[in-house]
Amino acid sequence: MEAADAVVSGGRTTKKAAAAAYAETPSSVLINVPGSPSGMPSFVCANEADVGAPAVPPTVSKVERAHHLAVPQLLKQARHHSQPSLVVRTGGEVPAVLRSDSMRDRDRRFDQFKTFSGRLERQLSSLRGVPQNTDVEKGAASKISEEDTDEDDEVPTADRYFAALEGPELETLRSTEVAVLPKDETWPFLLRFPISAFGMCLGVSSQAMLWKTLESEPSTKFLHVHPATNHVLWWISVALMVVVSITYLLKVVFYFEAVRREFHHPVRVNFFFAPWIACLFLVKGVPHPVWEIHHAVWYVLMAPILCLDLKIYGQWMSSGERRLSKVANPSNHLAVVGNFVGALLGARMGLRELPIFFFAVGLAHYAVLFVTLYQRLPTNVQLPKELHPVFFLFVAAPSVASMAWTRISGEFNDGAKLLYFISLFLYVSLVVRVNLFRGFRFSLAWWAYTFPMTSVALATVLYASEVDNVLTRSLAVGLSGIAVVTVTGVLATTMYHAFLRKDLFPNDVSIAITRRRPKFSKILAHLRSSSSDVKELVLSIPNFSSNSKQGAYCDDAGSIYKTRGSVGESTV
């Protein structure tokens, strides 16, 4: 039209020149396909201002001009029908569809996991008298299925986790499933920070306890371990525990729904024991004598473990979908180790009855868990390579139990030796399998090596103090050295991936499953679009026919907005 305007300004306007200029202007067609079409399609045309009559080419006759003015009026009746609509527009480039300000200002795809959003936010806004636009909010939110809305306060069931995820740790989304969060972009850090990160605290804090034992036990006096080593490791453990705890507390505050999903996860729920076990390790490894610590510290740390025992063990025994025969996996050992660590620390602090109580509870459930894991059904999925280290959790429970019984009974007697020999055999049986140590990438599962290796080394040091000879001393020093090297290497690798490569915490898809299995139509709808009800197929057609040379763009007041990537957007 610039060419036509130039001709007009020069006073040399002719119908022929204007028509030629108009014909050179490319046109485009937008076909808006709603999410659930029904009936016959309707076609809507409007001018660029969406008001008034459409502009008519200057060369058309009066009859054609009347036709151009009448067609939009006749078709306006079908404008608000839930039908596909055709939008014709001139111009060489198809403009982006305008979105409302509320849609642009805020990305609501992660709101369903946020604490201060959804229902709570609407309630607070209502108390403040702020008007709510629920239609816009629903339109801007990512819709996977109609059932997955903020109004549904339920979390996925255990059967749903098993159906949507695969692998023994249930961390991989099945190919037939649809995540409720975008998988092709990085999520907020707190959403990607899992409860299993407390495994790092277990490994480092157990090292502080190991070096304190090497300093104090008679079997390792010849090493002349300096007390400063225990001090340095203990403070490093405290700093790491503080950082991890604060980070996860922030997740609890800002993404409470994600924490709820982790707690209901059949595997992740076991890692909720890890923070309290790590604290028990820190108390046991404190540079000062343990018996000088007030007993109230032990009661405070064991109260959460008792509550978790009642919750988890009750589900193992009576819950249909969370019974032990269905959810058994190596991480279940964490739910048992806490009882033995509490018994060990309590006996060391001078307590008697309650340490025996926790030892008895842990021993009973360890026996059941051990047999259940050995009798895993042949239909269970084989452990992938990157998760093989969790097998070392088999070693942790009997080794810590042997130390606990040693402190309860006052000597490394036959009962303690029985448990120690079981842990030593399991340790050797895993070490000789060289295939477990190669061919897999680094992940947080590597920390499963550290804590059990350290616990076996601790038990060996106590055993060498009871059976003192060259062989037992060499075994104690050798296993302690392996544990130290393993923790140092894994800690260095973790820092490298966390701060340099920045790939330590990938998107945690295990918490992003739908509450119900999506229907086939819902899966197809998700593939077509990630966040809108209306799909747009854009056809850019230069030199359209003369009857449609002047098109208009129909903006449906915020109900239509542009989506990319999911539905094919073709240009002809």
TrEMBL record:
CDD domains: TDT_SLAC1_like. Keywords: Cell membrane, Ion transport, Membrane, Transmembrane, Transmembrane helix, Transport. The chain crosses the membrane at residues 189-211, 231-250, 271-290, 296-313, 334-351, 357-375, 387-406, 418-437, 444-464, 470-492. The keyword Membrane applies. GO terms for molecular function: voltage-gated monoatomic anion channel activity. It comes from the Eukaryota. Residues 135-146 have a biased composition (Basic and acidic residues). Gene3D superfamilies: Voltage-dependent anion channel. It is found in: Cell membrane; Endomembrane system. InterPro entries: SLAC/SLAH, SLAC1/Mae1/Ssu1/TehA, Voltage-dep_anion_channel_sf. GO terms for cellular component: endomembrane system; plasma membrane. It is a multi-pass membrane protein. GO terms for biological process: intracellular monoatomic ion homeostasis. Residues 126-153 are annotated as: Disordered. Belongs to the SLAC1 S-type anion channel family. This is S-type anion channel SLAH2. It comes from Aegilops tauschii subsp. strangulata (Goatgrass).
